UniProtKB/TrEMBL annotation, chains A, B:
Keyword annotations: DNA-binding, Transcription, Transcription regulation
Domain of life: Bacteria
Signal peptide: none
Name of the molecule in the record: MerR family transcriptional regulator
PROSITE patterns: HTH_MERR_1, HTH_MERR_2
Length: 169, 169
DNA sequence: GCTAACGTTGAACATAAGTTCAGCGTCAAG
DNA sequence: CTTGACGCTGAACTTATGTTCAACGTTAGC
């Protein structure tokens, strides 16, 4: 089939399919004499796998490292290893999400719990102090701490090495 | 204080502080006659708030929209609204994380549950079919469905509008 | 033979949140 | 007076995941 049909069958755009080829992720492609790409029905499966893996939190680089050229011949060890690590990543993120959610809920309550006799400015200071309490602790500790406190100070997202970043320098 | 001291006190880099100023996020800055930036101790608080909000999943744009120029004068309604929406975003992501994790665990089990009498190729096909089952359903349904199935087909991350994307076109 | 739909390419653009760099100015100590 | 640390600017670069565009080639139907 040509690229348009593959796009339709896989639900991806043609630009995305060409992009995957360019970065070496989709190698199952041939060329007709006129230069048109041709795909077998395997390509649909591969694209399905790619988007499924993406949904599960794998980057395209990770997927490329795991996807074999022959779909019937996987690297079992690497695969289950990567899957297990991804589960751990997810669990770590779940923990952080729970903490963030709890902090937000506490904050919402705290804002609404302004004592009748307190003016807004004072309330703001009170809430502000509470919000920054944990962070400031971190800071004062960090300032002459040797082991970094695991970098929880970054946006919430499921990135490959989200936990243990080794700054090679 | 000058920028270096603020960087040290806030734990951010000077480039990051200048960047925040450039994008209009940190307005609490004055200039000496020599061109050097000067900050009050409020700036430390503001930077602390910014990184705390970032950790909780707010983008810099969102933070800019919520941060008042006067820390004692917040927009209560906008703030609690944003906080509540962020909690909802987190809950949505928690659900997706749970699903992804469950799928990965199922997949790991499935890979290891290869029947003794089945060769690797056949096992690969079996597992592959299972993995893609849900996705293929989605696809066949989507093809002539009116309401989009809520775009769960994208990487896991906590982005502002992660749930309900309105394509204005 | 024309037109519409499809295909090709390379390059540029988009986003978010910064970092890095070159080239220059300022300031305090020795 | 020199040196080193600190500061300034604007521009370019980074990462990941694509999209968009212009300019051109191919093919099928009429």
């Amino acid at each position: 089939m040509r690229i348009g049909e593959l796009a339709q069958k896989s639900g991806l755009t043609t630009s995305r399919i060409r992009f995957y080829e360019r970065i070496g992720l989709l190698k199952a492609v041939d060329r007709r004499l006129n230069g048109y790409r041709t795909y077998s029905s395997q390509a649909v499966t591969i694209l399905g796998l790619i988007t499924t893996a993406q949904r599960a939190g794998f980057t395209l680089d990770e997927i490329r490292a795991l996807l074999p050229s022959d779909l019937t011949h996987w690297d079992h060890a690497a695969l289950t290893g990567a899957l297990t690590r991804k589960v751990a990543d997810i669990e770590a993120l779940q923990v952080r999400l729970g903490q963030s959610k709890a902090q937000l809920l506490r904050l919402i309550e705290d804002i609404q719990a302004r004592p009748e006799d307190m003016d807004c400015a004072a309330n703001a200071r009170r809430v502000l102090t509470n919000v920054l309490a944990k962070h400031t602790e971190d800071l004062t500790v960090t300032s002459d701490d040797v082991r970094l406190p695991d970098r929880t100070d970054r946006p919430l997202s499921l990135k490959p090495g989200a936990g243990r970043k080794v700054v090679s320098r």
